Amino acid sequence: MAISITEDIRSITELKRNTNSILKQIHKTGRPVVLTINGKAEAVLIDAGEYEKILKAFNLLKLLIPAEEDVREGRYSEAKDFFKEFKVAEGL
Fold it and tell me: Do 58 and 40 share a structural domain?
């Protein structure tokens, strides 16, 4: 999802004038469009499907943070040890 400097950076004025074509471009290319005001980046438009993918990946990453902290702090056990304990606890 690399941005094309010549195609994907647009002014707010352009968005107002060419909303449909900019939305078509976003859907066609799958790339976000950076919106500028006075030459400075102000916002980013992204396809809704791409946004959902990014959001799902971000939420998964948030779930991994506590696990990484546990590993760093030594709060884990080897899988073979876990399964041994599990079998004993469940009487298997």
Answer: no
